[in-house]
Design a protein that fits this description.
Layout (H helix, E strand, L loop, with lengths): L4 H12 L8 H11 L2 E4 L2 E6 L2 E5 L3 H13 L6 H8 L3 E2 L3 H10 L2 H6 L19
Parallel strand pairs: 3-4
Antiparallel strand pairs: 1-2, 2-3
């Protein structure tokens, strides 16, 4: 699961314009650069991405709820579909990796996958005649 500490620091900067007391120059530079893509509005942190605002997910519990909603409750959507739908509304560091691990650990999806046949397929040639 992702680390949410940087997002807490970024939110503090967006709300107050101040850095944490112990922040190094590199951390401050990173926060200033990231703040161009984020905003704090209506009590939530948002990320601007491709002319859309995505709500920033702030906890592992919320990540699990979103993964359940977009995979488990969505007819066990595959990895690509779940990532695409989640990224239309939400943002957190490592969305794709989180979905990949969630789908990989899904017992229902494992039951659905067909076992690969080790036998070679047999092809037949059909000959049709013309009169």
């Amino acid at each position: 699961m992702p680390s949410f500490g940087f997002l807490d620091t970024l939110e503090l900067y967006l709300q107050t314009g101040k850095f944490p007391v112990n922040a190094s120059k590199n951390v401050k530079r990173g926060i200033r650069a990231a703040s161009k893509r984020f905003m704090y509005k209506d009590g939530c942190l948002w990320r601007s991405y491709r002319s859309r605002l995505l709500r920033v997910v702030r906890s592992e519990k919320e990540v699990r709820e979103i993964l359940t909603r977009y995979h488990d409750n969505n007819n066990h959507a595959g990895r690509e579909r779940a990532v695409r739908e989640i990224m239309m509304m939400y943002y957190w560091f490592g969305v794709t990796e989180a979905v990949k691990n969630w789908v990989k650990s899904c017992s229902v999806c494992h039951e659905r996958t067909l076992p690969h046949s080790s036998q070679q397929s047999v092809f037949f040639c059909l000959v049709y005649g013309c009169d």
